[in-house]
Amino acid sequence: MSGRRWRVAAGVVVAVMAVALAGCSEDGGGEGGLTVGLLLPSRAVPRWEHSDKPMIEKRVKELCSECTVEYANAENDAASQRQQMNSMITNGVSALILDVVDPKALRSSVRAADRAGIPVIAYDRLAEGPISGFVSFDGGRVGRLQGEALVKGMGARADDGGVVMVNGDPSSPNAAWYEGGARSVLQHKVRILKSYNTLGWRTENAHDHMSAAINALGTNQIDGVLAANDSIAAGVIAALKSARVSPLPPVTGQDADLDAVRRIVRGEQYMTVYKPFRQETDAASAMAVALARGNDLDVLVTTTVDSPTTRDVPAVLLDPVSVTAETIGRTLVRDGVYTIDQICPPRLRPACDRIGLTR
Q1: 82 CB neighbour count, 10 Å cutoff
Q2: Within 13 Å and on the Cβ side, how many CA atoms surround 311?
Q3: In this structure, how many other beta carbons lie within 10 angstroms of the beta carbon of residue 18?
Q4: Which residues of the chain have a pLDDT value below 70?
Q5: With a threshold of 0.85, does the pTM exceed it?
Q6: Dihedral sign, CA of 146, 152, 155, 160?
């Protein structure tokens, strides 16, 4: 991905959301019949169904009481997502929020939406074609946070230590963004012994990659693992445990899935990257409602980015947050993502107590 990549403070997002909400109250109930199409990429990553979908549905309704959300999940299949998107175009939705499975495969559908006068907001991943806006977290920053945490977790072994990289799905533009950020930190500090791409971001594929790395390298050379997200981290850790690796090397993650947070409490996963999803869903919802009404995005966006097909796409890029055992309380718990009781079931209570995660 090229173009300017700027970070946005949470306060700026709150301000533009307030403007969008104020606009809704001024317009009254004149938006009857508006429909926002929401296309998410998979169920393999828990956040899409558990966080993004309900948050977007709720925020769209808050901004436009008579708007509805038409939803589809592609289950990691670009052909299915193309069919879902074309169906929404045929149904005449007012705007689309698209988290694209494969940007090139969906380019023709984005063009079809443009011809039909339906604006498309690229959500979390940068789509190709004539999109009207983009909302995401700074992917380079995500990778740098992962790399910095991995080096810290490796301690003295970070000095020329050996690292395995288990990256995301290469069809996702974010995968290369994350990897590039991580490599910018790791390349001068550690030896990258193996690097894998994980189709579908699937746990079982990550397990296979890590097993292959262990078979090729043995266990003593692997001082850390850069796992691109929490689903991948789950497969990596399962493979390490199956190989009876002890103690486990530090393993990174992303998305702050509840299972991953519990692995951090247990000491199995070193860190995750928390992306405050409400900021992202709020920004995307406000942009979609504004475009559905025929308004521009000037007050809502903070920068522009370039896609492979389109220059100066109006954009909001948000700041991710690194989370380790020591910071769960002042990040995820403080922000209301999870309660201590959710993170700390009875079997994890002693481990939670040890890291100061108490009621």
Answers
A1: 20
A2: 0
A3: 11
A4: 1-32
A5: no
A6: positive
